[in-house]
């Protein structure tokens, strides 16, 4: 009886290890695919004061307005990043001008890189936590609350309470993801999809997946 119990325990342990490896591999592949399909914006305020937080949103709006002008015909993330890199100095100039126009004298640091993001929802689209390529804008001492959005496909909102992502943006995102991957970020009603999304969050939050290129 003890021998049979030992065999059962060993088999159960091996099954657990196998399932964990499969789950990790799945989460890693999906996280990487999602991260490789979007280019994000990360704006950090000088501080958490009301004035600095309001300024953060004004800088955000100015940058998004410019981004929409120069990237309106982009069909891929790489194309969007290339355009932003070519116009990096202009992005900084726009941010600085917005700051000056609002009576502040903060400096701005702008970097394009791969940064860590928490799980974030944009209307009816949710992106799991992970590392994503992004344009990071640091205002002044950059000690205030962050603001995140997606520059490509354009999922950013001036009024995110609208809760609806433009169909054009969804189509671009859908074209760059598999059917299941797109369902993971857009369908919260299916219990199995919801479980898989939580699986992505778990592995990313414990730091096992970086989703870097």
Number of strands: 6
C-alpha Rg (nearest Å): 21 Å
Instruction: Give the helix/strand class.
Output: alpha+beta
Task: Detail the poorly predicted runs.
Answer: 158-162, 208-213
Distance between the termini: 51 Å
Range of strand content? 15-25%
N-to-C series of helices and strands? HEHHHEEEEEHHH
Helix content: 40-55%
**What's the tally of helices?**
7
Please describe the topology of this protein:
Layout: H1 2-35, E1 39-44, H2 50-70, H3 77-86, H4 88-101, E2 108-117, E3 120-122, E4 125-127, E5 130-139, E6 146-152, H5 167-175, H6 179-186, H7 191-205
Parallel strand pairs: 1-5
Antiparallel strand pairs: 1-6, 2-5, 3-4
What does this structure look like?
The chain has one domain. The chain starts with a helix and ends in an 8-residue tail after the last helix. A four-stranded mixed β-sheet has the order 2-5-1-6, sandwiched between helices. A two-stranded antiparallel sheet has the order 3-4. It has 213 residues and is α+β, with helices and mostly antiparallel strands. The protein is built from seven helices and six strands.
């Amino acid at each position: 009886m003890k021998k049979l119990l030992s065999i059962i325990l060993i088999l159960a342990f091996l099954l657990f290890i196998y399932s964990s490896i499969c789950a990790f591999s799945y989460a890693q592949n999906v996280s990487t695919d999602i991260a490789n399909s979007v280019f994000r914006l990360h704006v950090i305020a000088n501080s958490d004061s009301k004035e600095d937080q309001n300024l953060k949103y004004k800088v955000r709006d100015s940058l998004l307005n410019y981004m929409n002008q120069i990237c309106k015909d982009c069909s891929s993330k790489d194309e969007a990043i290339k355009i932003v890199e070519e116009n990096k100095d202009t992005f900084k100039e726009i941010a600085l001008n917005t700051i000056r126009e609002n009576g502040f004298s903060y400096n701005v640091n702008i970097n394009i890189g791969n940064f860590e993001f928490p799980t974030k929802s944009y209307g009816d689209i949710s992106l799991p936590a992970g590392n994503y390529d992004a344009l990071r804008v640091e205002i002044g001492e950059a000690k205030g609350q962050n603001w995140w959005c997606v520059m490509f496909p354009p999922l950013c909102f001036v009024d995110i309470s609208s809760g609806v992502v433009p169909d054009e943006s969804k189509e671009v995102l859908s074209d760059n993801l598999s059917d299941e991957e797109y369902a993971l970020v857009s369908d919260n009603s299916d219990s199995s999809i919801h479980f898989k999304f939580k699986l992505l969050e778990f592995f990313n939050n414990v730091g096992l997946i970086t989703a870097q290129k």
